[in-house]
From TrEMBL:
<keyword id="KW-0133">Cell shape</keyword>
<dbReference type="InterPro" id="IPR013221">
    <property type="entry name" value="Mur_ligase_cen"/>
</dbReference>
<dbReference type="GO" id="GO:0071555">
    <property type="term" value="P:cell wall organization"/>
</dbReference>
<feature type="binding site">
    <location>
        <begin position="119"/>
        <end position="125"/>
    </location>
    <ligand>
        <name>ATP</name>
    </ligand>
</feature>
<dbReference type="Pfam" id="PF02875">
    <property type="entry name" value="Mur_ligase_C"/>
</dbReference>
<keyword id="KW-0131">Cell cycle</keyword>
<keyword id="KW-0547">Nucleotide-binding</keyword>
<dbReference type="InterPro" id="IPR036565">
    <property type="entry name" value="Mur-like_cat_sf"/>
</dbReference>
<dbReference type="Pfam" id="PF08245">
    <property type="entry name" value="Mur_ligase_M"/>
</dbReference>
<dbReference type="InterPro" id="IPR004101">
    <property type="entry name" value="Mur_ligase_C"/>
</dbReference>
<dbReference type="Pfam" id="PF21799">
    <property type="entry name" value="MurD-like_N"/>
</dbReference>
<dbReference type="GO" id="GO:0008764">
    <property type="term" value="F:UDP-N-acetylmuramoylalanine-D-glutamate ligase activity"/>
</dbReference>
<dbReference type="InterPro" id="IPR036615">
    <property type="entry name" value="Mur_ligase_C_dom_sf"/>
</dbReference>
<keyword id="KW-0963">Cytoplasm</keyword>
<dbReference type="InterPro" id="IPR005762">
    <property type="entry name" value="MurD"/>
</dbReference>
<keyword id="KW-0132">Cell division</keyword>
<dbReference type="GO" id="GO:0008360">
    <property type="term" value="P:regulation of cell shape"/>
</dbReference>
Length: 451
């Protein structure tokens, strides 16, 4: 870790805790800043705040008092989930106080190069693929961090100069960067998302573009060739652009030709050797291949991983096969777009398990993607809407159950050898489960019980 002096003797407010806030506060304290932590949760219920208090860090809990802005803070490190409309944040910006997220701290102290991955869909799969390929290469020594669950500013403290940090980045994190500069940046794709936070697609996309804001001619930006709007978005970049495409052969990037995965005109392997299903995952694979080759990974490491990598948990995750039926856990499909991407991966009969929180939308947009669905099993608040869509799509069997656990044995009874049984809810989980991870774990447990 670089022993920087940037924050020494500076008054810094860390706004919001969770893992990123705790890491940021501890790090800033270590770097000699005068740190105050402010979190909404009351102190008596706040183990993280109590731990920071024991380190000698000033802690204010239970509310976000606007009066804090009168205490002369020179910097605010904001939890990514706190919106910029928060009165404290908005007031700080009005006063000219810089507001950053902890990824900026991670970059400042990291001794190693970073590969940064963002986008609407595919971030976690791409991040994990790159990490696994780097791990498989004897000349690389990767660390994984960021939005994937491991706080970047904690990982950066342990990173050495000969390592590589593979960092998944959300739009929320990228709004709060000043100098952050990954050597390799990836934007997998941009679709409309998080409008409740950003307000418009344009604002959301602009936040994503911050991943390349500080890159130079010595850096690389990997982009989806199929999204010209994305290229327009980053037209300001100084980085060397490396394209990837599943639709078009590219001499200067990663693409598909005659059923083969290609890198700059050279065949890497047959697509048929790749375990991970779906065109959307093929885009993730090509982005990961590009990043891996740019960082010097061997062809052997890439082939080894792509022949064995079955997917990230809860993201079109292959669970296994029972008596000719293949089971996939795509609990992360919390919206229609993600469900459509999962359905596109299969060209055999599918029994689809879907449902969850009703966000007020309909599901008729799914109809073109349901052509291989032979049965739909619904659950949760949205069950009636999904059933209405299934009727319009002409799905012959539609059944409603109470929850995911009940859906699995029902799907089994309806299935035949050669079928896919897919959990891809197209909805958030919060009407029945605290998270999509819990929903997915229950599905996996129910599948294992069938054995």
């Amino acid at each position: 870790m670089k022993n920087i002096k940037d924050y020494e003797h500076k008054k810094v407010l860390v706004l919001g805790l969770a893992k990123s806030g705790v890491s940021a506060a501890s790090l800033l304290h270590k770097l000699g800043a005068f740190v105050t932590v402010n979190d909404y949760k009351p102190l008596e219920e706040n183990a993280e705040a109590q731990g920071l208090l024991e380190q000698g860090i000033k802690v204010i809990c239970g509310s976000h008092p606007i009066e804090l802005l009168d205490e002369g803070f020179e910097l605010i490190v904001k939890n990514p989930g706190i919106p910029y409309t928060n009165p404290l944040v908005a007031g700080a910006i009005e006063k000219g106080i810089p507001v950053i997220t902890e990824i900026e701290l991670a970059y400042k102290i990291a001794e190693c190069e970073m590969v940064g991955i963002t986008g609407t869909n595919g971030k976690t799969t791409t991040t994990t693929l790159i990490y696994e390929i780097f791990k498989a290469d004897r000349n690389l020594d990767p660390l994984i961090a960021g939005n994937i669950g491991t706080v970047a500013s904690s990982v950066a403290q342990k990173a050495t100069a000969n390592q590589q940090m593979i960092v998944e980045l959300s739009s929320f994190q990228l709004m709060g960067v000043q100098t952050f500069r990954p050597h390799i940046a990836i934007i997998t794709n941009i679709y409309e998302a998080h409008l409740d936070y950003h307000g418009t697609k344009q604002a959301y996309a602009k936040a994503k573009s911050n991943i390349t804001r500080n890159q130079t001619e010595d850096d690389f930006l990997i982009l989806n060739h199929a999204q010209p709007d994305l290229w327009d978005l980053v037209s300001f970049t100084k980085a060397k652009i490396i394209p990837f495409s599943t639709k078009e052969y590219l001499e200067d990037g990663a693409s598909i030709k005659d059923g083969s995965i290609m890198w700059k005109g050279k065949k890497m392997m047959d697509r048929s050797e790749v375990v991970l299903p779906g065109d959307h995952n093929l885009e993730n694979i090509l982005a990961a291949v590009a990043a891996s080759k740019l960082m010097g990974a061997s062809d052997e490491a890439i082939r080894e991983v792509l022949k064995t990598f079955k997917g990230v948990k809860h993201r079109t995750q292959y669970i296994g096969e029972i008596e000719g039926r293949k089971f996939y856990n795509d609990s992360k499909a919390t919206n229609i777009l993600a469900c459509k991407a999962a359905l596109k991966a299969f060209h055999q009969p599918v029994i689809l398990l879907a449902g969850g929180l009703d966000r007020g939308n309909g599901f008729d947009e799914l109809i073109p993607s349901l052509k291989y669905v032979k049965a739909l099993i619904t659950f949760g608040e949205t069950a009636p809407k999904l059933e209405s869509t299934a009727k319009k799509a002409g799905i012959p069997v539609v059944l409603r159950v109470e929850n995911v656990e009940e859906a699995v044995p029902v799907a089994w009874e309806l299935s035949e050898p050669g079928d896919v049984i897919l959990l891809s809810p197209a909805c958030a989980s919060w009407d029945q489960y605290k998270s999509f991870e819990i929903r997915g774990d229950i599905f996996v447990d129910a599948v294992h019980k069938l054995r």
